[in-house]
Amino acid sequence: MSFSERIWQLCRKVPKGKVTTYKLLAEAAGTKAYRAVGNAMNKNPNGLLSCGYGRKMVPCHRVVGSNGHLHGFAHGLKKKAELLRKEGIRIKNNRIVDFEKLLHRV
DNA sequence: CGCAGTCTAGCAC
DNA sequence: GTGCTAGACTGCG
Questions:
Q1: Average pLDDT over chain A, rounded to whole?
Q2: Confidence (pTM)
Q3: Which of A53, A82, A85, A95 is 20 to 30 A (C-alpha) from A69?
Q4: For a pLDDT cut of 90, what percent of chain A falls above it?
């Protein structure tokens, strides 16, 4: 079980309609390297919106920045926002509305 | 906005 | 195998 897989596994536990943060994932994985978490997602074998390990797909789009702000990369943000919105999460100006209520603590 | 702290993956030697 | 660079981050000044 590599670091990335551990992160993905935790990420997979986030239910639909909820979100989590890089910070939370990192701490849940027992590290403080928040960047490494993002790196794990970035280097995923499947894609941006759904990382994957083995045969499972991980909803990477449910992972956001620390303040509920959609931290991330250039264009995928928009798609992520759309996906999240489809799951019932309201996005306003690249920021999660009611972030604290939607935040899923792992 | 910019700098420093932390960790993993990828590439070079 | 060791070393350096880059990166979906965070916190502080």
A1: 88
A2: 0.90
A3: A53
A4: 58
